[in-house]
Amino acid sequence: MKGSNDVSWIKNIQKSITRFIHPNEHEDEDDNNSKGSRFIRSIWSQVQTKNKGKKWWLVTTTGIVITIGLVFAGNEYVNANKIAYYNVYVGDEVIGSIDNPNQIEQLYSRKRQEYQNKYPNVEMTLYTENITTEAEVAFKAEVNSEATLKRLDGMLSAEAEGVELKVDGKVIGIVKDQETVDDILEQLAQQYLPEGAKQQLQVKQMSSSVTASTVSTAQAPESSVKSVKIVEEVAVTPTTVDPEQVLSVEDVTALLSKSNEAPIVYTIKEGDTLGSIVQKYGITEKQVYLNNPDIKEKYLQIGDTLTLTVPKLPITVTTVEQVAEEIVTAPQIEIRKTEELEAGKSKVVRPGQEGLKVMEYIVTKENGQVIDEQWLGQEVIKESVTEVVLQGTKIAGQGSGQFAWPVSGATISSTYGSRWGRSHKGIDIVSGNRTIMASDEGVVTFTGNISGYGKAVVIDHSNGYTTLYGHLSSISVNQGQTIEKGSSIGVMGNTGRSTGTHLHFEIKKNDVAQNPMKYLN
Fold first, then answer.
1. Domain 397-521 in CATH 3.40.50.2300
2. Which residues touch 74 (CB under 8 Å, ≥6 apart)?
3. pLDDT tens digits, residue range 205-224?
């Protein structure tokens, strides 16, 4: 019976040891440790009670208790010296460990600020996509956060955010952002605004062009910009690059302001001459002849094409301006002929007074060069006062000084003077009625061909004024002939440097070219 009791007692001790080594899952570590202490005390109490007077049992069980105690103590020591930390990975490689992930975030923040300070004019992005951390717990783990962060610092890199600027598909460069592109286009457009225009362009990106809103002017209606448009397709694409590759506004503006020679095909239009074409594009007649060996100027016709090699900018800014030009008008002259005065003598009986009118044009330019000009009409601001002159009639052929339009139903195709990059000593006139008439009474002093003017007639009005009529197809007067005002002198044509049927008309006073619009009303 006693042997059975000993076996039962030993089984109870085994159960206690098993519960200690394999505690319930819901019991935490502190509970296990405390329970372990109670367990050892319980076993020792059972040994002492059960084995009173049995020394061999006491020795054996004491050894068991001591062994269990050592196991328990070792377990407590390991648990007390476990350290939580984080391994740092760059890709699949562990480069070290740190105490807290916040240390990496602090490194990122400092590094971003360093790059932003170094490149203040661009937006920098720190490259951290391949950096990760993983939590770990180990016995007496050695964690060197400082060394790990230092190594990671040397591996970090950053790129600049920007946009790639393209013009007609050609890459010009990389700039900071869309706003920078807008500033560049605005600066380019501002170069071609008339003086006095307010600098208030609002450039907008379009699918195939860049346009600007209407620009008001401080001195309207003398000059106002109706529209500003960039002809080429301007596109931007977001990108990331080395910050040294990001260009400034000044750098890109300089690139877009640099011209390169490029071939173009030019179509002849009404009013064009070889001289006007070379002047418009800043080239020489020799260059035109080299590119077009079959050209014969006298046969240039509207619709013909010329191959020209001209300087061309990467960006073409087209502006449409409405221009109002004030012109002082000469007074009308009323001639009262009298036989009391010798021919060539006159007497002013009422002085005239000048008037004022405003002529309006729509002028289209490409990069500041006029490509089209339309006369809208004129408005009389102040009427001139007619001058009354008595003129002797003893000798015929002296003009009145009052000029009439040399054709009826006239329309101006090209105006007088050095404006918008052109120099013109007269006006070009087109009309459905091709008959040319003497603008005032006078004596025909020349009929024939003049270089550039083709067939021409010159009339001396014997009062300091002369008139010239160019590009005639035929002449109906002779040199030395006295001609009355309004008499036919020829037919409008296309001779000389002319690309369409029209009349070139000049008025000179004492051999100095005058603006015919000052005298024609």
1. no
2. none
3. 333 333 333 333 333 346 78
